[in-house]
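Worked Example 4.2. Consider the chain below.
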Amino acid sequence: MSKKSILIITDGTESINQIARSIESLLTKFNVNTITAKNFTGTEILPAEIFFLGCEDPNPVCFSYLEKMLLHINFAGRKCGIFSVNQNTLKYLRNILKHCDTALSEPFLAAKGNIDNSKIQKWLKDVI
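Applying the procedure from the previous section yields the following structure tokens:
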């Protein structure tokens, strides 16, 4: 049986990359690919059964292509998790996903950059 495919798309900032690395290290039973939004071409998300989006600040320039794509694609039946160190950014991420019909779980907020693997692991159980 093949492993489920997971894609993590980040803005490339250190705090967000740290959360992405933690997610990747905890999902050992999955095929996880992490990329930055500036390197995202669109085809990487097609095989992903679950995907994650994370950025530090709302509306980063590197997310512009991803935002446009999410307006025109349907991800019904796919799960998504969003994460950030900023509450306003979580609102932004929720907003860019509202048209693509993905099953969005509760977001993960690493307040003040406090990245706790046990909290991430608990959150991942809700996403997956």
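The chain is about 30% helix and 20% strand. The radius of gyration is 13 Å. Compare this with Example 4.1 before moving on.
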